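Notes to self, Transcriptional regulator:
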Amino acid sequence: MERHEAIAALVALGHETRLDIFRLLMQAGPEGLPAGQIGERLGLAPATLSFHLSQLKHADLITFRRESRSLIYSAVYPVMNALLAYMTENCCQGDAAECSPTSATCQPKERHETPARARVR
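result:
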């Protein structure tokens, strides 16, 4: 994945509604969901849904196909996998195998300072 592609994908996923749509489509699997069903499940007006679907499509994170009068949207798994690989390619000083959530060798150091929200000002 090129840097500009990663930026486009992260920008698209950086909006709460688009992230919700994308996660719903990831859960739906390769068969995808009709646009109307996405809107119903997330409580989105058709115009709002259309705008966000367009942004995700522009970032190549989703695709669609026409079935009769319906548009069926689905996540593009290879693009998501490429984004994850791009984000972790230099993890743990280039050893991506050590960058798993359960790895004890490459975990952030614990900080013993009070979080900014909890500080008295």
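- The domain at 1-121 is CATH 1.10.10.10 (Arc Repressor Mutant, subunit A).
- The beta strands are 33-34, 62-67, 70-75.
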